[in-house]
Design brief:
With 321 residues, the protein is mostly helical. The protein has a single domain, classed as Formate dehydrogenase/DMSO reductase domain (Formate dehydrogenase/DMSO reductase fold, Up-down Bundle), CATH 1.20.1630.10. The protein is built from eleven helices and no strands.
């Protein structure tokens, strides 16, 4: 139902928001990159692998968000539509998401620049406040990508809070994947970086486990729903043209393979883990997240089937729900 640009927008926005949120959380809780004092943030303070990992993760998060905004603008098609979205806003999910995405794009750019330009005069409190605000706004963006589908009329397949929950968890996993993907570019590994990656792998394991639970609950809900539109959507996603994206792309590549890889790495007694293996797992997570959004978005049967149901009920004299 959605075009390629819209699906890419949902994926890139969620993945970029996840990267920013995870990067901010790790910096606030673990790395605590120094800013705003003598000898603070300077080239020598950012050569530690775990700090440099977050530098690249912030840059990747900004790049994903910028690509998502570009896809949104291209999907809207005309500059006047883009302008009206911001200058004449309406209280709708698309408007809230667009504003949140724009603010997060600015914050992620600032957080990346303050690291790569080595700005020692930036107050530490300002950076910490920006990171806390970025986490809150990123959560809005991650949830919004699923809420947008839920609020679209005429598609019963999306009328469940399980859709935003699945998109939120997928975005968080993409955020962890962004950090894993950035790790090999951070120089020679050391113990603090490997401990951070192992901790993040355990977090991502929990997120993936929750994804599996929510995905299974979504399938069970759709299978138990007696609405013909929902049943048709489920058939398209699990048995029809989108079955490959759902089962192989999302199920195998996005959930099962990273789960096995991270289980093997996160619970090893040794602190040594393979950053290359984590980067491969990250690529699988990102590919699976894109496949999941494509399968769910493209499988939605629109209002035409619902109107057909109404017409059949009216002709048969059956009561309408």
């Amino acid at each position: 139902m959605f075009g390629e640009l819209a699906v890419l927008y949902l994926f890139l926005g969620g993945a970029g928001a996840g990267a920013v949120a995870v990067g901010c959380a790790l910096d606030l809780a673990l790395v605590r990159q120094p800013f705003g004092f003598a000898g603070g943030y300077a080239p020598n303070s950012s050569v530690q692998p775990r700090a440099r990992t977050l530098d690249f993760a912030f840059a990747l998060g900004f790049a994903l968000l910028a690509a998502g905004v570009t896809c949104l603008m291209a999907d809207l098609g005309r500059l006047d539509r883009v302008a009206s979205l911001f200058l004449s806003p309406h209280p709708a999910a698309l408007t809230v998401g667009a504003y949140a995405l724009a603010v997060l794009l600015v914050l992620s750019a600032a957080l990346a620049l303050v690291r790569f330009l080595y700005l020692p005069d930036v107050p530490q409190a300002a950076v910490r406040a920006a990171e806390a605000a970025a986490i809150a706004i990123a959560l809005v963006v991650m949830a919004y990508t699923g809420v947008l589908l839920q609020t679209i009329g005429g598609v019963g397949f999306w009328k469940t809070p399980l859709v935003p929950a699945l998109f939120l968890l997928s975005s968080l996993s993409c955020g962890a994947a962004a950090v894993f993907a950035a790790a090999p570019f951070a120089g020679v590994a050391d113990e603090p970086q490997l401990r951070m990656l192992k901790l993040l792998a355990r977090f991502d394991l929990a997120v993936i486990a929750l994804e599996i639970v929510i995905a299974a609950a979504f399938l069970a809900w759709a299978a138990s729903c007696d609405h013909p539109g929902t049943a048709a959507s489920l058939a398209v996603m699990t048995q029809g043209e989108n079955a490959l994206a759902w089962w192989l792309g999302f199920g195998a590549c996005g959930l099962a393979a990273p789960l096995v890889a991270e289980l093997a790495l996160a619970w090893r007694r040794s602190a040594r883990i393979s950053r290359r293996a984590l980067a491969i797992a990250a690529a699988l997570v990102l590919a699976g997240a894109l496949c999941m959004r494509w399968a769910v978005s493209d499988s939605g049967v629109h209002r035409a089937l619902e109107l057909q149901e109404v017409e059949i009920a009216a002709l048969s004299g059956a009561p309408l729900e």
